[in-house]
Design brief:
Elements (H helix, E strand, L loop, with lengths): L4 H6 L8 H7 L1 H27 L2 E2 L9 E2 L3 H6 L3 H34 L5 H12 L2 H11 L6 H8 L14 H26 L4 H8 L4 H29 L3 H6 L11 H10 L4 H29 L1
Antiparallel strand pairs: 1-2
Helix pairs in contact: 5-9, 5-11, 6-9, 9-11, 11-14, 13-14
Length: 307
């Protein structure tokens, strides 16, 4: 009996059916292969290079051979005062910025959830800073802080207050970085908190109202415990991102004045590309990587234990 073309296409491929059978079985892998190769090249090679460079002394002169020094670069960190300043600045920035972003984001989320749910255009406006490229954010704040014609000093002048060198003052420089970061990333916390509030069950709140619990008591005994997983994820993401801050500092202050805003990422950049000390920069990067991974692992374990 002669089969039609439709019947022939409907027939399953026989085991061991050659190239067509193999192609159909591995089509997904073949489609993903170029992307996987690209990602492997962009991640595996730099990681392997960082591990090997961290235990070597690499001269900026290509004709000078590399020298294996073991833990020499790591021991050097213990007596590097500039690195210690960068660590302190990074910790201060991370704690201050993330704390302010969390408090403002949670407060705005509660405000929108309870009182102004219908004003969706305000939510869109609040999310705009998060959508702007970080470089554009940094350039915008650089113009705001500009000593001669910046908006902030113009406002100070109209209020009868003296102008300030915002990004050039040792006592104000870190605050200017924190303010710009809070403006940019508070919407991220706000969005997560608002989504978390929208998913809360209503029954416990109805029962609490029947029992006469105040709004403050409901917030501490119901809202915060229910939001704990969302809060943990929001804080973890923001802390990990804040620890690697680079763009705002590089454009606003370049780590100055007098190292007052130099963060770990900027310090690694200077060591690698200004002083051309690749081995030491790789060692510092490796320590930062291990600290970040270790903190994230500890934080997630604590979150699971709390649940």
């Amino acid at each position: 009996m002669v089969r039609s073309a439709t019947d022939m296409l409907a027939l399953p491929l026989r085991p061991g059916g050659g190239l067509e059978q193999w192609t159909e079985r591995h089509l997904k892998i073949l489609m993903l292969a170029p992307t996987l190769v690209l990602l492997a090249g962009l991640t595996l090679f730099p990681t392997i290079y960082m591990f090997t460079a961290a235990v070597q002394r690499i001269s900026p002169d290509p004709s000078v051979p590399r020298e294996f020094i073991g833990l020499g670069n790591f021991v050097r960190m213990l007596s590097d005062p500039e690195l210690h300043i960068a660590i302190k600045n990074t910790v201060v920035f991370t704690f201050s910025a993330v704390t302010l972003e969390f408090l403002l984001g949670l407060g705005l989320a509660l405000l929108f959830d309870k009182f102004i749910r219908q004003l969706n255009f305000l939510k869109t406006i609040l999310l705009v800073p998060m959508m702007i490229p970080p470089i554009a954010v940094a350039l915008t704040w650089k113009l705001i802080y500009q000593p001669q014609f910046g908006v902030l000093n113009e406002l100070m002048y109209r209020l009868g207050l003296p102008a300030q060198a915002w990004a050039g003052d040792v006592n104000l420089a870190m605050a200017t970085i924190i303010a710009a970061d809070v403006w940019e990333w508070t919407p991220f916390i706000f969005l997560l908190m608002l989504a978390g509030l929208a998913s809360l069950p209503t029954e416990p709140y109805e029962a609490a109202q029947v029992d006469g619990a105040s709004a403050w008591r409901q917030f501490w005994d119901l809202t915060i415990p229910f939001l704990k997983p969302v809060i943990a994820i929001a804080l973890l993401l923001r802390i990990m991102d804040a620890l690697r801050l680079f763009d705002l500092v590089f454009i606003l202050t370049v780590g100055g004045p007098a190292g007052a805003t130099e963060t770990l990422s900027l310090y690694i950049f200077k060591v690698a590309f200004t002083f051309v000390d690749i081995g030491y920069a790789a060692a510092v990067s490796l320590v930062v990587l291990f600290v970040t991974v270790g903190f994230s692992t500890w934080f997630i374990k604590r979150l699971r234990l709390a649940d």
